[in-house]
Amino acid sequence: MAFALPVWLAVQEELFGHSRVDCGAPSCFDEFDDEALFQIFHLTKPCIAFITDSVRVRMKKVALKKPALSVDAMVMVSLNYFAHGLSSASVQQRVGLKLTDCPAVISTVSGVIAGMCDQFISFPQVEETKARVASTIETFCGIPNVLGVLAPAHFKIRASPYEKNSFRSFVNTLGYTSVVSQMICDSDGNILSVEKCCVGSTFEQEMWDSSFKGREMEEELHGSYWVIGGKGYQLSKHVLTPVSEPANDKESRFNEAHAKIHNVMRTTLGSLKRRFRCLMQLGFAQEGSLNKKSNIIKACCVLHNIAKKFSVPPPPIAGKIERLHPGKQHVVGVDVNPEALKARQELINANFSVDSSSKDPPINTNTGITEEEV
Questions:
Q1: Residue-wise pLDDT tens for the chain (374 aa)?
Q2: Measuring CA to CA, which residue among 281, 262, 290 is closest to residue 321?
Q3: Contact predicate 372/322, CB 8 Å
Q4: CA 180 – CA 68 distance, rounded (Å)
Q5: How far apart are CA 283 and CA 292, in angstroms?
Q6: Alpha carbon 308 to chain centroid, angstroms
Q7: Cα dihedral sign for 245, 248, 252, 255?
Q8: What are the tens digits of pLDDT across the range 263-283?
C-alpha cells in the first residue's frame, strides 16, 4: 500500500470532525450522473467527494485569500483540466468562470493537492511495513528485500527553440522536450515517492544522488533494502540494476524477474497519464519556473493514489503513451561499487540458481499496455 490505513482513518476523522457542517451541503458535482462524472473527470462520485473534502480541509489550514469560487467549483475546474489537459467550456459556464481565470484556479488547487503528498504518498518507514512491501514484491517477481521501483517519469512540455540554451536542456534521450520527476512505486502501482522536477536532459543518477530518498537510502536510513532501477542508474548498495551481459542462466533469470517488476512502473505511468491527460502535454516551461509543473505532477500523483484506494479504474487506452526512458548514460565510464556487485551476485546465487518455472507460472510481461504505447 502507498499509505497505511491509519493515515486514511486520520484524514477521514479530520474531515468529519472539522467539516461536518459542509458534508451535507449540496455539491455542484451532484448534477452529474456516474457515467458523466467518469467521462468528465475520470473519477467516481465517492472519490471526488473525498478529494473535495480533503481540499476543503487543507484550504482552511493554509493562508489563502478567500476565493471567489466555492471549493467545489475550484475542484471541478481543476479535475476537469487534470483529466483532459484543458478546461471545457461547459464546466467553465457551469461554475461561472472565464477562460482567462482558469489557470489561476488550477494553480491554486494544484498547489493545495501537491501539499497533501505527506498524507497520500508514503514510502515505507516502519520495519513491519517495509517487510510487508518487500514480501509482496518478492512474491510478485522473486527478488527479495525490495521496497519499490525507481524510474524517471518524463512529461512533455513546450520550450521555445529561439532560446537555444534553454531549449537544449529540455531535450531528453528520446528527442523531445520534457520535464522529468523521480518516482518510486510498489508492485501494486501505488506511488510511494515523487520528487524533483528537472529539465528533460537531467541524468537519472544525478537526480537520485541529490534527492531526499536517494540520500536516505544510500545513507542506510531504510536498512538493507533495495529499490529496482533501470540502466540509467548505477548499481549501488541500494539500487538494484539488471546484469548488463548475463553470463549464465541464473543471471538471465534474474534479469527476467527484474524486468517483470520494472515493468510495473511502465504500467503505473501509463495509468497515470491515461487518467490525467494534462500530463501528456504540460504546456510551456522555462528552467527557472518549474514549480507550477512540479505541483501539477505531484497533485496528479496524489489523485492517482486516492483513485486506486477507491478502486477507480483508469480510462481505456486512447492514443500512444511514450515508453519508459532507456536511461541516459554518462559519456565517461563509472566504476562499479565492488561491494554492490558482490551483493547483487550473492542475491542472484541465493535466489535464481534453480529454475523455478516448474513451481511458479511463467513470467508474464504483458501489462495491458503495448510496447508502442508506453
A1: 444 444 444 455 554 444 444 545 668 898 899 999 999 999 999 999 999 999 999 988 765 566 678 999 999 999 999 999 998 999 999 999 998 899 999 999 999 999 999 999 999 999 999 999 999 999 999 999 999 999 999 999 988 878 877 888 999 988 899 999 999 999 999 999 999 899 999 999 999 999 999 999 999 999 999 999 998 999 999 999 999 999 999 999 999 999 999 999 999 999 999 999 999 999 887 766 788 899 999 999 999 999 999 999 999 875 555 566 666 665 556 678 899 999 999 999 999 998 654 444 444 444 444 333 33
A2: 281
A3: no
A4: 33
A5: 11
A6: 12
A7: negative
A8: 999 999 999 999 999 999 998
- Grid cell locating 214: 536517494
CA nearest 374: which of 229, 258, 242, 262?
262
Secondary structure of the chain as H, E, C letters: CCCCHHHHHHHHHHHHHHCHHHHCCCCHHHHCCHHHHHHHHCCCHHHHHHHHHHHHHHHHHCCCCCCCCCHHHHHHHHHHHHHHCCCCHHHHHHHCCCHHHHHHHHHHHHHHHHCCHHHHCCCCCCHHHHHHHHHHHHHHHCCCCEEEEEEEEEEECECCCCCHHHHHHHECCCCCEEEEEEEEECCCCCEEEEEEEEECCCCHHHHHHHCHHHHHHHCCCCCCCEEECCCCCCCCCCEECCCCCCCCHHHHHHHHHHHHHHHHHHHHHHHHHHHCHHHHCCCECCCCCCHHHHHHHHHHHHHHHHHHHCCCCCCCCCCCCCCCCCCCCCCCCCCCCHHHHHHHHHHHHHHCCCCCCCCCCCCCCCCCCCHHHC
Q: pTM for this structure?
A: 0.87
b/e string for 152-190 if b means 16 or more Cβ within 10 A? Answer: bbbbbbebeeeeeebeebbebbeeebbbbbbbbbbbebb
Q: What is the distance between the alpha carbons of residues 107 and 111, in angstroms, rounded to a whole number? A: 6
Half-sphere exposure (Cβ direction) of 346: Cα atoms closer than 13 Å:
8
Contact present, 181 and 294 (Cβ < 8 Å) = yes
pLDDT in tens, 51-68: 999 999 998 876 556 667
